[in-house]
Design goal:
single chain, 208 residues, alpha+beta, Mannose-Binding Protein A, Chain A, 2 domains, 9-stranded mixed β-sheet, two-stranded antiparallel ribbon
């Protein structure tokens, strides 16, 4: 009889422990589900804020066409401890586009986020439908010089291919909290929908 009582008490204790574990599991699962919902909602809100900030911003810059590529890079001040400029970005590899001759050109750049993944060849028409054209190399550098912290937040490119050693590349402003970079990437394949394109509307041109 005593043995049966001990067995019954043991089984009761085991059952109680299992019930406790089950209750804890339910609580943690519910908390995880809530956390996951909050995380998804936060990500959605973050993406919405990202899109609003990008689409609603216009940046005034002045491009000095009298500067060489090297001078433009110097003006952009990639001089931080971890900053770098791709060794492929040289005057021999990167031709400069001059709109209307030498001088200063005042333009507005808008940062336009792709609304879906796109092929490189489809992006110019995407910009054209919005009333923009891709920024040139010098416009991209002028933007980098005046707004150096923007590339720490976004991957910004002009999506305009240049041919280097027989291969097509695009130039991009990249970075993070502790560095800025002027880099090149192969100009083929699909760009994800978080890619930011520097689009341009010209507002004034005056020669010097």
């Amino acid at each position: 009889m005593d043995k049966n009582i001990k067995i019954e008490r043991t089984l009761t204790a085991i059952l109680a422990v299992l019930v406790i574990f089950f209750c804890v599991f339910l609580m943690e699962t519910n908390a995880f589900t809530k956390l996951r919902i909050v995380t998804i909602n936060n990500q959605s809100s973050s993406n919405e804020r990202y899109a609003r900030e990008i689409e609603n911003s216009v940046y005034d810059i002045t491009v000095n066409h009298n500067e060489t590529l090297s001078q433009m890079i110097t003006s952009a001040k990639y001089t931080g401890k971890n900053d770098f400029v791709s060794e492929l970005i040289t005057p021999a590899n990167i031709p400069l586009y001059v709109s209307g001759g030498k001088g200063e050109e005042k333009i507005q750049i808008s940062l336009i986020k792709l609304d879906k993944a796109m092929n490189n060849s489809d992006i110019p028409s995407f910009l054209g439908n919005k009333g923009y054209r891709p920024a040139t190399v010098e416009e991209l550098l002028a933007f980098s010089a005046k707004y150096p912290d923007m590339q720490k937040k976004y991957f910004i490119t002009n999506i305009s291919p240049v041919t280097i050693a027989g291969y097509k590349f695009i130039i991009a402003l990249t970075g993070d909290s502790d560095y800025r970079a002027l880099d090149v990437f192969t100009a083929h394949g699909v760009w994800e929908n978080r890619t930011v394109i520097a689009g341009v509307k010209i507002v004034e041109m005056k020669g010097i």
